[in-house]
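Incident log, structure service

09:12 report received: a user says their structure output differs between two submissions of the same chain.
09:20 pulled the input from the user's history:
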Amino acid sequence: MLNISISKLLTTRAVWMLGLGALVLGGVASGQANRPDATLDELVVEVQALRAEMNQAAATSIRAQLLVGRLQMEDQRIAGVVRDLEAVQADLLANAQSRADAATKLKTLEEAVLGAANDVREEAEKQLNAAKAAAQQADRRQQALKRRESSLAKELQEDQARWQQVNARLENFEQAIPDK
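09:34 re-ran on a clean worker, output below:
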């Protein structure tokens, strides 16, 4: 056994080395085969993260659009209430003038009835009663207009409060968006 030739020993040793080398190369090749899988996994994770970010951006955009829409709606509502309030206030002024005119006419007719002769007195009393009815009508209209004005003023306050709430939410939303 000792007579085994050195060349045979080298050959056996070379076969072992080649086998060992093949195993090492196989392991490296196997590691490289796993490496693309790891890269693919990383890409899948990155794509999922991008999708999540895009979904979040879309949801954020929708929320912002809804808030802006609500703010515009409140602006329109406030503008409508302001127009109605201004119209009622103009009606109040006109009715107040009408009431003042009716009061003046009423006073004049009362004096006319007191100083009128019997034959004209009946006609003056009819005019006086008509003037009293007109004055009462103006008073009722004034009260109705005052109630309407009060109602519109309250509605305006509520709409302005809602507008401020929506605006505050929009400002908070804007501040929550990171600067890029």
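09:41 both user submissions now match this output. Likely a transient worker issue. Closing.
09:42 reviewer note: Helices lie at 6-115, 118-176. The CA atoms of residues 113 and 126 lie 10 Å apart.
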